[in-house]
Structures are given as C-alpha cells and as structure tokens.
Amino acid sequence: MNGAESLVRTLVGGGVTVSFTNPGTSEMHFVAALDRVDGMRCVLCLHENVATGAADAYYRMTGTPGSTLLHLGPGLANGLANLHNLKRARSGVVNIVGEHATYHRQYDAPLTSDIEGIAGSMSHWVKTSVSAADVAVDGAAAITAASQPPGQIATLILPADTAWTEGTGPAPVEAAAAPAKVAEAAVEAAAKAIAAGGRPMILLGTDGVREKAAALASRIAEKTGARILGQTSVARMERGAGRVPLERLPYPVDGALAATKGITHLILVGTTAPVAFFAYPNKPSLLYPADAEVITLATPAEDAVDALERLAERVGASKTAPKLTAPGVPDLPKGALTPETIAAVVSHLMPENAIVVDESVTTGRGFFPYSFGAPQHDWLQLTGGAIGEGLPLAVGAAVACPDRKVVSLQADGSGMYSLQALWTMAREKLDVVVCIWANRAYAILKHELANVGAENPGRKAHDMLSLGDPDLDWVSLARGMGVEATRVDTAERFADAFASASRRKGPFLIEVLC
Amino acid sequence: MNGAESLVRTLVGGGVTVSFTNPGTSEMHFVAALDRVDGMRCVLCLHENVATGAADAYYRMTGTPGSTLLHLGPGLANGLANLHNLKRARSGVVNIVGEHATYHRQYDAPLTSDIEGIAGSMSHWVKTSVSAADVAVDGAAAITAASQPPGQIATLILPADTAWTEGTGPAPVEAAAAPAKVAEAAVEAAAKAIAAGGRPMILLGTDGVREKAAALASRIAEKTGARILGQTSVARMERGAGRVPLERLPYPVDGALAATKGITHLILVGTTAPVAFFAYPNKPSLLYPADAEVITLATPAEDAVDALERLAERVGASKTAPKLTAPGVPDLPKGALTPETIAAVVSHLMPENAIVVDESVTTGRGFFPYSFGAPQHDWLQLTGGAIGEGLPLAVGAAVACPDRKVVSLQADGSGMYSLQALWTMAREKLDVVVCIWANRAYAILKHELANVGAENPGRKAHDMLSLGDPDLDWVSLARGMGVEATRVDTAERFADAFASASRRKGPFLIEVLC
Question: Given CA atoms B11, B15, B17, B18 in this order, what sign does their dihedral have?
Fold first, then answer.
C-alpha cells in the first residue's frame, strides 16, 4: 500500500475516525486512500476554518482527536484562527496538511510556502514526513501527541510523493498517558488556603467545569464556605437541573473585578490565573486582588476530579451534599426580543440533553442564569476569542453526537466569518438549530470604542462597526446553502420557531431580529 | 496626538489612503484616529481574507500600497491565504495588526498568539512598535518597505498602548527606490541567445505583461522570430484590441511542455523559470526542456520596460511594428452554456476599459483566445494558487478604479471561500458584475484525482470533490448580502443578464449554471 493508505489505516486503527476535509491537488492520493479504506467519516467543509472549528468541538464532545485534511500552507492558514481557539480550549486534533512532493519544493512553485512556520505558530507538534516509509510511523506519533492530556495540536505535513510512493503497513499507536495526578503538596496548599480564615475562591476550567468536578467543588464550597466560579469562557460545561449552578467569571473587567473582590486565596483547577481579554487604559490586567495568594491545585493537563476528590477528603467534604439546581425554567415571554426574553425562550424550550454552542457575544452575556434549571445540557463556548468558531463548533458537536440536538446561539458578526458551516450542516443533515442574533453590528466593538475613551464616534467609525447598509439577510444566506430558515421579530414568534425546529431533525436557522 | 493618530497621519501623508478593515477591541484607538483624520477611505470587510485580497488588487491597479487593519494573530491568520497570493503577485501592502498592550502580553490572555511568527510566514518586513514615540517612524518604514519594487508585504504590529499613549507627530516617508535597471550583461546575454540560431522564447511576467513591455517584446519577436509568452497566472495583463495578443503558458503540465517543446533558450522578463503548480508521478517539475539555456533579462524587481527597450535596440527591433490584435469579438452564441459559449458572451459584451478578475479555474481555461479583440481591458488572476481571492480582488479593483467596470469571472468552489466580499460590494456600491460558474464541484480536483491515477473514485471521494447535495444557490447567497442577482441556464439568457448588468452601476451577480 502507498504512504497515504498506510496513514489512513494508521489513523483509523488509532481511533481517529473522522476527517474534516478541504482537500486540494496535493492531497488527492490521500483522498483516494480515504475512498478505499473503511472506518473514516469524511466531512467536507467549504472553508478550512470550518474544518478546524469542527475538530475542536469533536474533541470537546468525544475526548478523542479527529483529523483535518488541509491543502498546503494557505489551506492551513485558512484554518489557523480556529486552531487558535482549539488550542485555548485545550482540545486535540491531528491536522494532515498536504505539501509539494519532496523533490518539487526546491522549485518554489506558486503554492509553495513555509508550512512548518505557519503550523508552528499554532501547533504543539509538527513534522514533515520525509519518505513514504515514515508516513505511518509519523501518523502514529501525531495521534499520540494529539492525545496528550488535556489535548494537543499535532500537524503532520505530507509531501505528495510520500503519499503516492509504496509505504509500509499501518503503524501501531502508542496510547496517550492518562492525566497526571497532582502532587500531594498541591492538595495540601489548597487545603491550607481554605483553612486560612480568609475568603478563598476556587476557579474552575477545562475538566473542572464538567459535572463530576463541579459537584466535588460544590461539596467543598458547601462545607467550607469557599466560593466557586467557572472561568470566563468554557470549552465544555455540563449544566442544567440536578447539576451545580456554576456561574462564570464575567468578561468585562469591572464585572470580573467585582466578582473576585476581597478574595484572599485563588485556587485554580484546570485553569490559569484570570486575566483580562484586553488591556484598557487605567484598568488592571489581572482580574483578582493583587494581594490574593494564587494556588494551583490542578493544571489543565492534570486530573481535576482526582485533585478535587482528595481536597474534599482533606477538608472533610466528601460526604457533604453539593448544591444542585432544582428543575425550573422561566415562563415563555411575550413581546419584544431582548437579551432577557431571548434567554427565557431558549431556556424554556431547551431540548433534553442538548449541546449548546454559544458564540452570542454581547447578546448572550446574560443567558446563564435563565438556564440553570433547564434540562441537562452541555455548554460550549469560544475559548480563544477568535470569533467565527460558533457555526463550525456546531458542526463538530453534531458530528460527534448524532443523537443529541445542537443549539447554536450565534451573533451575526461572528457568524459571518464562517457561514460556510451552514452548507456542511445541510450536506451532513446535522441536527442543529441555529439562532442568529441579528443586531446588525459588531455590537461588542461599539462598547469597546466607548471603553477606550472614544465617546462620540463619527460616521467613519460607526460604519466600521456596523453590519447594516445593507442588512444581512440570514434567511437568504441559509437557503443559499440548503438550510431552511425563518425570521422572527417577537418573543412569541421566536418561541414558535424554536419549538418547531427542536421537534424536527436536521438543520434549521432562525434569524432573531434584536 | 496619540500613537494611533500619528500612524494614521503618517499613512495618509505617505500616500496610503485606503484601509481594508476588520478591526477588534485592540484596534479601537486606531479606529478612533481613522475617524478623526481625513484622507483615509475605510472599507469594512466581514472577513480578513477579503481585506488582504482587496489590498492585492488595489496595488495591482494603482501601483501604490493600500493598508489593512487586522485584529491580533487570528485576524492576521484569517488574511494569510490572500497575503500568500499577494506575495506571488508581487504586490505591496501595509498590514496594521493590533496587539495586546505591551505590559499585557506577559499574561497570555486568551487572544495572545505569536503574531510575529504568523506574520513572518508571509511578510517581507515585520516590526512590533515598542512605544508610542516609535509608531509614526515605524509606519513610515513600513510604507517604504511595502513600496520596494516590485512590491512587498510590510506588517506593522501595534500594541494597544502604543496606540493610545501620547506619541509624536506624523513621520516623513522615504520614497521607495525606482525599479533597478538591469545590467548590460543581461541584455547582452539575451541578445546572444536570440542570435544563437536556436529557438528562443521570451517568457513575460509581472510588469512584462503590461502593454508597454508586451509591445516591446512583440517588436523583438517580429524582428527575430523569438517566441513570446506570458506566465501561467498574471497579476495584471493589459490586453484587448490594439494590443499584443499574448498567450499564457498553459496550467496543465502536458500543455505547458507542448508550449515550450524544442526551445533552446528561455529569456525571463519579470518572472522566474516556469515550474509545474504541482508535482505528478512520472511528470517533470520544470516546464521547459532540460537542455534549454535559461537567461534572466529582468527579475520581477527590475525595470522590464527599460530592459526590453535596450534588448530591442540591440537586436535592431526598435522600429519594428509589434503584432497587435485587430478589433473583433465572437458572435453572440445561442443554446447551451459551455466554456466556449460563456467565453463568447463575455468577450462580445466586454465593457470598454473593464477590469476582468479571473478566478474561473477549470471553466475559464479557454477564455483567452475569445477576448484578444475585445475592447481594451485589464486581466487579473490568482497568482498564488490559494483559491478564494477572486471576489476580494474584485472589491479591491473596484475601490482602486471607481470609474471602470469590474467583471468578476468566478468559479463556485473558490468563490465560497470568501463570499463575504459580496457584502462589501453592496456596502460600497462597487461597480462589479460577478459571474459565478456553477458547476457545483471542485471540478479541477476531479481531473486531478484522475491525474494522480485514482481512476474510478468511489462515493466517498466523489462527495469530497462535489459541491452538490445540496446545491449552492448563489442568487440567495447574493441577496443575503444585499447584492441583486439572477440565474441563467442558456447562452441567450446569460447574454441578456450580462448586458443589463453591464449597463447599470453597482454590483450584480449572475449565477451561470454550467
């Protein structure tokens, strides 16, 4: 078998069974091999950033890396922004990037670029195969690298001749290490901080916001009075009725500072010390008191559940009941569409076991409190701040969990970055309800312009932050890509559309004028 | 004035008067400065690859660099693929990329990335300003760098605090050097090659395919019997009735080899020795005979017109008449839409002084012969092979030349990469007729799959190269972004739609089912 086939068989054998693809000429032997080998689901994406964003959600939902297939340096470049988000979500992925044949690179053909350089900016592991005999072994190493806890970006660059030349059989894949247990000293330090008589806070991220870890943290909080909070943007939070009602650290600097005001000890589980998304004149970078002691109980790569179990034991909270939310959702609202009525509709109608993908930006900041008592669901967010991942995440979540409803809560400006994802939803008949918050502006930037002190913007600044003139028509955009859609302008109509979209299978888009 | 304003004033003073923008929080002071300072046209793009592709065409049409405004590493990453194309077109641009405040970077906020690393993969000049006092001088240096012949990519990274802190006044911009004159030895070598009694060919690229250079090359060809040819993908070719009917080296390897078969000397003007876009098993990389002598008369950075004038003089061709095309276009065809009838319609109805942006890929390979005798026009192509630049190029060409009609010849698969450009056409009321060749496939890849020996692809490979199921509906996509559109399925209807779109001002899209 040729190198390409040895790689496909290695991937499938190593548990990498989905390929989010956007291939080109240099990847044709790999495409042909995918065609011959069973076991790999190929999901065509019409832009590479859809592929990488989908791979991110796939990892968040399955815990195993998917793969992408990208066309040389520019194809990789197109997917880089969502690799940034994927990195910040601490997901794993195996990128397969085609390259010119080894002997062809010296000629600097038009599509030649520094692929390793481009990959290096966003990858934990990069390798260019040097011969067909190496491809399978390199592929196995890529899978192992991608699977390192908590998840890594492995980029394997595949020169065309290493794909088409006779290679070896598939290579065995070394299992990734389990997440490391934290040192006893870390548990001790956290326990000491809690016992110090101050105002300790436990900040949770990565696996720390999953059901098991959050319940343990809640036991500790109930027993000791320590406060618990999730990080600002979560990769995957398990929430809803019967789970811990975990708030997140607010995004705006002032809100975050208010949330951490007066804390004396900050205990980190699966996250790092919180820092403002952006610097602002005369505001601090760090989102906690300068004199608070920071204790890392578990890094994102370490076993958060084990660490919290041991901490709970040490503070005598193992038997304490966690604080869990009773079922209960807001009534269906009437009248105007506002962030509050939108949140009430979504929370009231949330399908059982849904996966919510939240790239709501400004519109969605207040959604959380409404849905604490909704049916259990997962909540996925943009972790790296590179907008344009919401729709791709919805693709990946739906591919990963075909039996669950995906609810995509999507701001319009960020949705436009990767609207091609809608086509993949239609092609793959993915079970996604997309809600577009059509405020027709980069609304967050209007706040930010005021934040930086530019109070009364003129026409030119206004135009640079507005999506009007002309208004985007998301119903037409969706139809253009084969996704049924409707537009609503009242809470009642939104509720009707959302309920109806939730009952059916397959993609549906609701443009919510707000 | 703050650093941001000193930079905007430096840019405007240095002749950089357009900004293709997609700003974020870290660029808000720059946005506020753009708002305060006159002289900079701000063109909002809903994806960064639209901004960089537009900047490419802007340079091709004006010869002066425009600027882009991009949001940190991911914003730059999103625009990287068209920077690759821009680099291969040898265009110039000043990228302004926002960055976290200098003191904020140490905290590794979610949007932190290695911006210099990302920029370095596609830039000739990269600098991060270290203080507000440096910003104006750095901006001036960026303009000078971008203006170096034949055009360079200069990326200035602007930490937010260098933008908002009090800076200097604007800095003066050092004029870029004129293109260097070639050494006499190069002219001598070319003349000797022509006189050697073999079969010399002059291959033209960059400025070598503009009117003046092509006419000089034609004089030499008419006088000496040397053949002349344009490079495969041209940044900007001036053509039409009364100009030299310059063919281009074919894209397929076999066609290219046939075109250069038997040549003994290859004289390069504004280009490099031709190489296959991709390697294929058992086909050569170089697209000319192994024993041909390669002579560089002028590199892309050197003065092609001067070099050809001197060569013409030396071979006694200065007074020889160039071979120019007489006016004449094909009749309007009837019936089915084929590459030939499409080409006939476009050529017959080509508006006077149009700018044609050609990302036709497979559908458009045969267009050239039909339009040699059309009214004079410029022909812009994808130079770097990173598909998704056609629509952005149309934006930039229309911004650069508001009094000329832009005709965008666009394949559907590549159009989908950057369809957000349609919105900017609507917002800016750009005078563009977009023709989408809706073959609903990555048709080129179907050929390529066969080329690499994968003859009878199965369902999975077919699906990865098809844009059907569901079909894209470009009329809806255009309407979704505020661009009027129609769909045609016969040559007559295409002609009607094209004629009507050509008569009106503003953007119009025609989906051509083929």
Answer: negative
Q: Which of residues 288-347 of B touch A (CB under 8 A)?
A: none
How many other C-beta atoms are found inside a 10 Å radius of the C-beta of residue A502?
17
Would the CB atoms of B164 and A452 count as touching at under 8 Å? yes
**Do you find a cis peptide bond into B149, omega within 30 degrees of 0?**
no
**Cβ–Cβ of A480/B476 closer than 8 Å?**
yes
* Three-class HEC string of B355-374: EEEEECHHHHCCCHHHHCCC
User: Which has the closest alpha carbon to A153: A202, A86, A220?
Assistant: A86
Q: What is the pLDDT of residues B64-96, one digit of tens each?
A: 999 999 999 999 999 999 999 999 999 999 999
Quickly tell me which residue has 């006893």 as its tokens: A184
> In the prediction, which pLDDT does A455 show?
65
Mean pLDDT of the region A173-192: 96
The token duo for A200 is 């300790």
- Biggest distance spanned by C-alpha atoms of chain A: 69
Interchain proximity A49–B78, CB inside 8 Å: yes
Compute the Cα dihedral for A212, A216, A222, A227 and give only its sign: negative
- Rounded-to-integer distance, Cα B250 and Cα B365, Å: 8
Report yes or no: B463 at the A interface, CB cutoff 8 Å: yes
- In B, minimum Cα distance to A423 occurs at B470
- Quick check: B235 contacting A, CB < 8 Å? no
| Alpha carbon distance A28, B448 (integer Å) | 7
List the structure tokens of B296.
């560089």
Average pLDDT over residues A239-254: 97
CA distances from B251 to A104, B50, B287, B361 (A): 16, 25, 10, 10
| Contact indicator for B20, B43 with CB cutoff of 8 Å | yes
Specify the pTM. Answer: 0.98
Residue A37 at interface with chain B, using a CB cutoff of 8 Å:
no
Look at residue A450 and tell me whether its pLDDT is greater than 90.
Answer: no
* pLDDT of A249 over the 90 cut: yes
CA separation for the pair A327, A83 (Å, rounded): 37
Structure confidence by residue, pLDDT tens digits, A369-418:
999 999 999 999 999 999 999 999 999 999 999 999 999 999 999 999 99
| A and B: number of Cβ contacts within 8 A | 321
CA distance A436 to B360: 33
Per the structure block, which two tokens stand in for A396? 């990946």
Residues B279, A461: C-beta atoms closer than 8 Å: no
Residue position matching structure tokens 């008449």? B321
Minimum-distance CB partner of B107 among A21, A118, A286: A286
Whether B23 has its CB under 8 Å from any CB of chain A: the answer is yes
**DSSP type of residue A456:** S
* Beta carbons of A111 and B479 less than 8 Å apart: no
DSSP letter for B39, please: S
Instruction: Label residue A457 by pLDDT band (50, 70, 90).
Output: confident
Name every chain B residue with its beta carbon within 8 A of the beta carbon of A464.
Answer: 21, 23, 31, 34, 42, 44
**How far apart (Å, rounded) are the C-alpha atoms in residues A396 and B390?**
29
d(CA A59, CA A296): 25
